[in-house]
Target: Tyr recombinase domain-containing protein
Amino acid sequence: MASRFKDLDVSVEDFISEQENESTKKKTLQNVAVLQQFLASKNEERKLEEIPPEELNEYLSEFIITVRTKDKQEEYEPSSLREFIASFERYLKKKNYGHSIIKDLQFEKTRKALSSKQKDLKRKGKGNKPNASVAISEDDIQTDSLDKKPWFKQSPVGVNKLNSIMKVMSEKAELNKPRLKNHSGRKTMMQTLVNEEIPPTDIIQLSGHRNLQSVNNYATVSEKQQMKMSRTLSAFTTGIVSKKMPQERKVRVEAQVKITKCL
Model:
């Protein structure tokens, strides 16, 4: 009789590792390497997983406050500091360290240092993501040259070409918008679906996101929505009620306007 259970071809640990996102693996190793450089500057020769929690807590607290970017020697964004801690947590878990930076009391100082540093960075204007990609507007899409040249051709596209394609398209269309990047296409799709009130459960099947919260991150107020809200507020303050407004809401708004005028 055939067994219901297949023999393991690899260890459970190897199977889990194989399923981990490659970019996450790469980011984890990069962030750990930065920390190892910091430890070397402190004449610390032990590996990360060999350092006792009490000592590692002190190192991490100082690292979070002092770390700077390699190229411009600038401070990191608040979210990048969180990514450092998440990377260290993943690395130590794989090494069976036995302690959690995120949960255990031994690393309370590290968590407080992270929280304080994030507040300090936000006061300095960090965290607003000034270089984040923007969605493509309807005006940007309307160009006169769309029907003059073929959009596609039968030849492979290289990595460098893909990385620069949105920038080149933006320059040729004379849009003068440096924040139009490759991610702008994805952001446009997400914002369009969200604004059209497509259920998030449907959107993630198209976008590939793993959780619904990721969809909410794309929710922004469009220009049309801003105009609609402005007209609604204007109608409330002036007493002008839209003809399209349901009768029940009309009565409620008119009553609120009368009360406001009495005050």
Notes: The chain has twelve helices and no strands. The first helix runs from residue 12 to 19. The mean pLDDT is 78.
